[in-house]
Amino acid sequence: MQGVNKVILIGNLGKDPEVRHLDNGASVANFSIATTETYKDRNSGERVDQTEWHNIVLWRGLAEVAEKYLKKGDSVYIEGKLRTRSWEKEGVTRYTTEVVGDQLTMLGGKKSSDDSGQSSNYSGGNQSNSQQAPAQSQTPDTNSEMDDLPF
Amino acid sequence: MQGVNKVILIGNLGKDPEVRHLDNGASVANFSIATTETYKDRNSGERVDQTEWHNIVLWRGLAEVAEKYLKKGDSVYIEGKLRTRSWEKEGVTRYTTEVVGDQLTMLGGKKSSDDSGQSSNYSGGNQSNSQQAPAQSQTPDTNSEMDDLPF
Amino acid sequence: MQGVNKVILIGNLGKDPEVRHLDNGASVANFSIATTETYKDRNSGERVDQTEWHNIVLWRGLAEVAEKYLKKGDSVYIEGKLRTRSWEKEGVTRYTTEVVGDQLTMLGGKKSSDDSGQSSNYSGGNQSNSQQAPAQSQTPDTNSEMDDLPF
Amino acid sequence: MQGVNKVILIGNLGKDPEVRHLDNGASVANFSIATTETYKDRNSGERVDQTEWHNIVLWRGLAEVAEKYLKKGDSVYIEGKLRTRSWEKEGVTRYTTEVVGDQLTMLGGKKSSDDSGQSSNYSGGNQSNSQQAPAQSQTPDTNSEMDDLPF
DNA sequence: TTTT
DNA sequence: TTTT
Question: What is the distance between the alpha carbons of residues B48 and B51, in angstroms, rounded to a whole number?
Answer without folding.
Answer: 10
